[in-house]
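Researcher: Can you fold this with uridine-diphosphate-N-acetylglucosamine in place?
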Amino acid sequence: MSAYIVEGGNPLDGSVRVHGAKNSVLPILAACLLSPEECVIHNCPDLSDVTASLDILRHLGCRVARQGEMVTVDAGAPTGWDVPDNLMREMRSSVIFLGAVLGRMGRADLCAPGGCELGPRPIDLHLAAIRAMGAQIDESGGGLHCTGPLSGADIVLSIPSVGATENIMLAAAAARGTTTITNAAREPEIVDLQTFLRQLGADVRGAGSSVIVIRGGQALHGGEHTVIGDRIVAATYLTAAAAAGGQVEVTGVDYRHLSTVTAVLKEAGCAVKSGPDRVFLHSAPLRGVRPVRTAPYPGFPTDAQAPLMAALARGSGCTVFVENMFESRYRHVDELSRMGADIRVEGRVAVVYGVPRLHAAQVKASDLRGGAALVVAALGAEGESRITGLHHIDRGYQDLEGALSGLGARIRRV
Ligand code: UD1
């Protein structure tokens, strides 16, 4: 079992480049399936979720090659329409293949993704939309057996779900007729997916706003695309510097994607400056801030909640967090408490009373961003912490220890 050994109390200093966004590259890899010609994806991070997506594409009969940060996918002659159980389980967001497989192959067999570490993660909105587009879905035996053909539809989402918006965009690009998504998610990763689909010749407009219109059925061709930088990885590096002290420059990310995170870090006392593709943070002793409420983009991202909480655990004053996106998203709290943090959780609310110092502890990651939060806290704690459960962290961070070591952190994987 691998673990991080983190010796806290060393300020960070230097510049670090973030890798491509996990949440962009996963739907983009699924989109490759829609094109009969080769697609080239640049800035593709080396993450276990990406490896699982590439395995799914191979299983479906695509030719896939990886060279460093460049991945090529040739879906010229796909042979399959099923995603086997083990691959579905390996990556919880594999439901993103539903729209693309159904769109390209006219049918799709997936096992229903179970609950996950963030609490129940329903896919009712995905299924209702695909049904509205004409698909038959048989949910018997724990599986999803879907058959087309698909046609355009007017879809109104009751929640601006990121995954449902992406699935509908993928299915709609292959469907006959026009699809309109109202109350679509507005995340930067949705815009990135639109950019890629347009690169392939799809007619998609409106991503980044609440209404997306897809004129389906265009003949698609190959394309080349560079994935946007990962705003959550950037947020993690910034909170790490806030927790450990020092000054860092984070590059390779659009600063506008981080505006709610940097606003809170400024309120907490840090000096933050932004340029088009970078953010610079100079840390200061942290103080509590006004309530942090997670919300769909452009609100405060739920994925940055845990790392920010870890930073604010050491400091003065008190901060209230309200987690509006997922249940069970405070599993890092017990572990932070082992390090001396004073945090009370009641339902969706967590109250963080800043303490003057955190101490090292043996802690265990139980989800991706909660795991990153433990690293952030350990960097600011006194002594040597040991963090296990690294397979969660590896789903979304490429060589986190290398990136932080480059900034002067004492962290190693054993
Ligand atoms: C995506 C991100 C994840 C991020 C989340 C919210 C990926 C791979 N993952 O997850 O990192 O934390 O957005 O920004 O991009 N919901 C339903 N029914 C559905 C779908 C969703 O009720 O059919 C609910 C969910 O339970 C949740 C809310 O909608 O409460 C938002 O979820 P959603 O935006 O779909 O998140 P994901 O796409 O799963």
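Model: Folded with uridine-diphosphate-N-acetylglucosamine in place. The chain has two domains: 4-19+229-413, 22-226.
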